[in-house]
Amino acid sequence: MALDITRLSIRHRGGAALFDPLTLHVAPGTIATVMGPSGIGKSTLLDAIGGHLAPDFALAGEVWLNGKDICRLRPEDRHIGLIFQDALLFPHLSVADNLAFGLPQYLRGRTARRAAVAAALEKAGLAGLGDRDPATLSGGQKARAALMRTLLSEPAALLLDEPFSKLDDDLRTEIRRFTFDHIRARDIPALLVTHDRGDAESAGGTVVGLGQGNPA
Amino acid sequence: MGAPLYEIRRQGRGLRATVLLAVAGGMVLPIVAGLGQTLKAAFGLFPALGHDRLSVGPWRMLFELPGFWTSLRLSVVTGLGSTLIALILAIAVAATVQGRIPARRGARLLAPYLAAPHAAMAIGFAFLLAPSGWIARALALPLGWARPPDLVTVNDPHGLILILGLVVKEMPFLLLVTLSALSQVDARRLRAVGAALGYAPGMAWIKIVLPLVWPLIRLPVYVVLAYGLSTVDMAIILGPSNPPTLAVAVARWYGDPDPAMFLPASAGAILQGAVVIAAIAALWLGERVVARLALSWLRRGGRGHGAGPVLGLLTGTAMLLLMAGAAAMVSLVLWSFAWRWPFPALWPESWSLRAWFAPGSGLGRALANTLLIALVATALSLTLAVAWLEGEDRAGLGRAGWAEGLIYLPLLVPQIGFLYGLHVVFLSTGAMTGLAAVIWAQGLFVFPYVMIALSDPWRALDPRLIRAAEALGAGPWRRLFAVKLPVLLQPLLTAAAVGVAVSVAQYLPTLFLGAGRVPTLTTEAVTLSSGSDRRVTGAYATLQAVLPFACYTLAFLVPALLYRNRRDLSGAQ
Question: What number of C-beta contacts closer than 8 Å exist between A and B?
C-alpha cells in the first residue's frame, strides 16, 4: 500500500517541463510533503497524480499505487482522495448527503449507509449536524466534514493541496492533527503540498522541494 | 529516458459527435437549405412553377415593384438609425450610472424590457403614441383638444416611430450587455485612474473603459443591427405601411395570391440578407474610422469637464424612453381591461373582462399553441446546450471561434432570407408540417439565446467542485446529474426562461413554417394590431408579455424555494 512516483514530469504541450523530474516513495501511513516556489506547478503535480490534468498538458514518468500503474486510469477509478484549501462541500446537499456522496457502492441498504455516515459525523465531532446546510458550518467544521467525506470513499491514497492555509493558527493546529491522525490510522500514503514549514514538520515524512534546472 | 509518456485523453467524444451532428443537421443544414432554396428562386429557378432557367428576371421584377426603392431606403434608415441611437444612449447611460448603481440592480431594472416580446412592446408603444393614446390625452387638457388630433403618428411614412420603438426595445439590451461587460474589465479601477489624471468621470469612462468594453459588446451590437434591419413584426405594427420596410414588403410578396410573386420575393429576401451584411460591414469600417479619429482626440487630452451636459442630456433622453416603454406596457394591460374610455380621459371610465373571455376569440387556442411550442422548443434547446457545454468540459476544450460563430449564425442571418425557403423545402420533401415545423424553426432562434445565457454561469462553476466529485469516485454522468445540474439550477432555469421569452416573441417562423395555420399569441396580436378592437389586441399582447414574465419569476422562485435551506444556492445572498 504505497504511492510511488518515478521520474514524473509535466510540461505544457510544446513547452518546457514545469519542474525537474520527481521521484518519490510514500509509505503507507506516512505523509510526504512537496514544497516549492509558487507557480512552479505544485497543484498541477497533484492534478497529474489524481488524474485531473487538463488535456493541454503532457505527462511523462510513472505513478504507481499499490503495485499498479494508475496513469491511464480515469480519475474516478484511481481511488485517490483530494483535499483542497476550501472544503468544497457540495452546496446543494446537506452535510450528511455530502458524506454519503462518497460512500462506496458495495455498502448496500439505506440503514447501513446512514449508519456509516452517522458514525463518520460522530468521529468528526459533527454529530447532529447531518441535516445542516454546509454553508452554515464554521470553517473548522467544514474542513472536518470534507475530510470525512473523502475518507468515507475509502481512498487508497490522499492528496492535500494546501489544506490548512486558510485556517487561523489555533484551528490550523487542530485540523492538521485531526487530518494527520486519520491518515495514519487508515494506513494510507498521503502527499501534502504546502508553503508552511510547520505543516511539513508536523507531517513528519519525507520533504521534497520542486525545483527547476537541477537535473536529477 | 525510458520514462513512458502519457497523453491526457480527451473524453466525451461520443457526446461531442452527437452534439455536432445535431447542430449541423438541425441548425446549419436547415439554414443552408432554406437560403439555397431562396437563392435559386431569386435567380429564376423554381421548377414547381415551370421556371427552370437561370435568369435575372426576378431581380428586374423586384426593382420595378411599386415602392421597392422606398422600402429599401426605409429599411436602411430605420435599422441603422435605431441601432446607432440605441448604442449612443446605452453608452451614455452606462458612463453615467456606472459605479452609482450596482450591476445586479441595474440588471433587475432592465429585465422587464428584455423579457417583453418585441410585438407586445410595439403594440403598447402604438397605444401610447396614437392620436388617441395616453400622450395625446395628457396634452389634451392643457391644449384644449376635445377630440384626438389629426396627426399621423404611428405608421408615419418616414419610419420615425419605428425607429423610436426599436430604440426603446434595444437600448435596454445594449445597456445590459455593456454593464455585464464592465464587470470583466475592472472598470471601477480604470475610472479611478482616469479621475486621478484629472478626467471627468464620464469622459474617463468613454476614453478609457469604452475601448476595452467595445470588443465585448460588438457581437450583440451586430445582432441588434441585423434585427433592426430585418424586423417584420415591429415594422408591421409601428412602421410605414405603404410602402413598408423591405422585410415587411418581402413578407407581403411571399403572401401574394399570385404565385409568380414568389420569384421577386425571393430576390428581395436575398437582398435583405445583403443589406444586413453590408450594414455590418459598414459598422465594422466605421469602427476602424472612429478608432483612428478617436486616437488623436484621445491624444489631445481633453478632460471633458464640459461634456457633462451632453452626457446628461443623452442620459435624460434614455430615461425618458425607458419611462415611455414602461408606460407602453401599462397601457397594454389597461386597454385589455377597459370598457368605456372616451378621449381626453386619462383613465378608463368602466372596466370589463369581455376582451379576455369573448367566445370564439381564439385566445385560448393561441395561448395553448404558444405554450406548447415554447416549452418543447426550450426543452430541446436546453438539452442541446447542456450537451454542448458538457462536451466541452469533458474534452477540456475551450470554445473555438467557429463554434461561437455557429451559435450566433441564426441571429445574424435575416429570418426572411431563409425561412420561406425552408418552408418550401419542408413542403416539397414532406419532412415536417404544422406544429412540428414551427417548433423546429423557433428552435433555431431559441437555442442561440439559451446557449448564450447558460455559457457564462456554466463556466463560472468552480472546477474544483467537479474534481472533488471525481476524487470521490463519481463518473462523468454522475458528476453531471448529481453535481453540475443541481448546483446550476438557477442559471438553467433562467436560460429556460430566456428560451421561452424568445419563443413566445417569434413571429416570422410561426407565420411561414406554420403556413398561417398555427395561430399563436404573437401572430394574432400582430394581425389584430392593424386597426382591430384595442381591448382584444391589448388582451393578446398582455398575455404575450405576461408569459415571459411568469417564466422569469418562476426561474427566480423555484430555486429560492427548493434551496431555501441552502444558502449558497437560494439566490438570496
Answer: 106
- The whole-angstrom distance between A212's CA and the closest CA on chain B is 18
Cell readout for B111 is 429585465
| Closest-CA residue of chain A to B564 | A133
CB contact under 8 A, A133 and B566: yes
Asked if residues B178 and B107 have their Cβ atoms less than 8 Å apart, the reply is no
**Residues A55, A56, A59: CA angle, nearest 5 degrees:** 75
CATH architecture of structural domain B67-350 = Orthogonal Bundle (1.10)
Give the cell for residue B21.
Answer: 451532428
**The domain made up of B12-58+363-573 is a member of CATH 1.10.3720.10:** yes
β-strands A190-193, A157-161 pairing: parallel
The domains of chain A, with CATH numbers, are 3-90+155-209 (3.40.50.300)
- The interface predicted TM-score (ipTM) is 0.91
Half-sphere exposure of A90 (CA within 13 A, CB side): 30
Sequence-distant (6+) residues with CB within 8 A of A167 are: A139, A140, A143, A175
pLDDT along chain B (573 residues), means of 10: 66 86 90 92 86 89 94 97 96 83 79 90 93 87 84 87 96 91 80 83 82 90 94 95 94 90 94 94 93 84 78 92 94 90 86 82 91 97 96 83 84 87 85 87 94 91 93 93 95 95 95 90 92 87 94 92 88 51
DSSP track, B467-491: HHHHHTT--HHHIIIIIIHHHTHHH
B191-224 CB burial, b ≥16 within 10 A, e <16: beebeeeebbbbbbbbbbbbeebbeebebbbbbb
Neighbouring C-beta atoms of residue B323, cutoff 10 Å = 11
Instruction: State which residue of chain B sits closest to A50, comparing Cα positions.
Output: B471
Domain boundaries, given as residue ranges, for chain B: 12-58+363-573, 67-350
According to the model, what pLDDT value does residue B2 have? 55
Identical fold between B12-58+363-573 and B67-350: yes
Residue B175 to residues B87, B111, B171, B193: CA-CA distances in angstroms? Answer: 8, 11, 6, 23
